[in-house]
């Protein structure tokens, strides 16, 4: 993306398409200086898929 306007347009299209967006974060384990984290997100589009 080359400009703020392009970024805004991209995110507007993305968020209009991805309805009821949900971010899931799960802490798996941690030991010493290491942390295991799982990230996932889910949504449905305007056709219900």
TrEMBL record:
InterPro entries: DUF1348, NTF2-like_dom_sf. This is DUF3606 domain-containing protein. It comes from Methylobacterium crusticola.
């Amino acid at each position: 993306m080359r400009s703020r306007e392009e970024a805004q347009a991209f995110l507007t299209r993305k968020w209009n398409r991805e309805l009821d967006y949900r971010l899931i974060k799960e802490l798996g384990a941690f030991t010493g200086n290491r942390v295991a984290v799982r990230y996932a997100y889910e949504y449905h589009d305007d056709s219900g898929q």
